[in-house]
Amino acid sequence: MERLYNLILWLLTPVALLRLLWRSRRVPAYRYRWRERLGRYDAPPLQADVWLHAVSVGEVQAAQPLIRHLRDGDPPRRLVVTTTTPTGAERLANLSPEPIPHLYTPFDLKPVVTRFLDRVRPRLVVVMETEIWPNMLRACEARDIPVILANARLSERSARGYQRFGSFTRQTFARFRCIAAQAEADAARFRALGAPPARVCVTGSVKFDLRLPASLIERAEVMRRHWGIERPIWVAASTHAGEEERILDAHERVRRQSPAALLVLVPRHPERFERVAAIIARRGLRLTRRSEQTPCTADTSVFLGDSMGELPVFLAAADAAFIGGSLVAVGGHNPLEAAALGIPVVIGPHVFNFAAVADCLLEAGAAVQVADAERLGRQIAAWLGDAAERARVGENGQRVVEANRGATQRLISLLDAMLQQTDET
């Protein structure tokens, strides 16, 4: 199986490079520094205490407290962060006025991984959430570099996929020095796939530990005036292909009950901004775009959030939110930011990426799950017409977030203990 895995990777490498080129048509950053993905670097070699990998924006955001602790702790640790996407790299660059060393994630090819490890020479590797690279794990094991899978989650769907590869999967998961799972259900799946039980623990989800900046509410008030302070407003956050049409169907239902209602539509990926704008235009709906920096008028029906890093502001300024990636089989995105802000949340049927978090919110009456656009529109319309119910559901969400804090500190304690072990060897 290992030989087949490597053969497939080599065959897919030209396809992966062509995909980067294709994506660069809409996001030019994909064509820059592409050689790093092949383990070729222009910068001088690094000596890192910790290599931390966070695939994209959400994982970088979740890793932010860990990054700060590692950089600013006692003793401070030399850190290299890899991301897969340019948006993740951009988010990392905005975390600190001091630059954080960044490289793009190397492809999991043996010679590429070797060049990367020779370049960075980490003493500890921290991988956020769900990135599993067999060749990287094998190479780190050969060099006695511990690898931690932090804030780890594994859906039933993904576990079934890994089960098909039998001993190859068991050998791969056995190479993690530690798997810090978000929930017991995740931990059980990792153990069932071959992770040694003694190396699997439950630390909780660091996404409950989000801290909202003090300036957020002030920025949200400015945004609300930009939209129209008296209008009922809902956000569709982090949407994917196949969802926008359904969301616009739901919005038409909402406007039948609340004609002044405004939909704030925020696609997950920047390269889709133009495509989503065209979908809205084909509906004949009056559109205002954030990138145009013009205020909404009374007849604006949809506000397109075609900017980066402003989703928290949009959520804080809204009355209700739908979390995207859940009406289609993407698996959903993090609903906790909205919940922490006291915003009632609707999710679709596909939430396998955040199953434990979704269950917490649903059981506490802090979210509602819907099956389709018709039910989405009905639920949003009901909330926009009932301020007391919105407040009740929003308060439930805030209580859930507060009750589940603490995962970050548990994970920091784990990292400190492992770094101390590496200091002693």
UniProtKB/TrEMBL annotation:
SUPFAM superfamilies: UDP-Glycosyltransferase/glycogen phosphorylase. Transmembrane segments: none annotated. It is found in: Cell inner membrane; Cell membrane. Pathway: Bacterial outer membrane biogenesis; LPS core biosynthesis. GO terms for cellular component: plasma membrane. Keywords: Cell inner membrane, Cell membrane, Lipopolysaccharide biosynthesis, Membrane, Signal-anchor, Transferase, Transmembrane. Its main location: membrane. Residues 33-209 form the 3-deoxy-D-manno-octulosonic-acid transferase N-terminal domain. Residues 285-399 form the Glycosyl transferase family domain. GO terms for biological process: lipid A biosynthetic process; lipopolysaccharide core region biosynthetic process. The record marks E129, K207 as: Transition state stabilizer. Its EC number is 2.4.99.12. It catalyses: lipid IVA (E. coli) + CMP-3-deoxy-beta-D-manno-octulosonate = alpha-Kdo-(2->6)-lipid IVA (E. coli) + CMP + H(+). It comes from the Bacteria. It is a single-pass membrane protein. This is 3-deoxy-D-manno-octulosonic acid transferase.
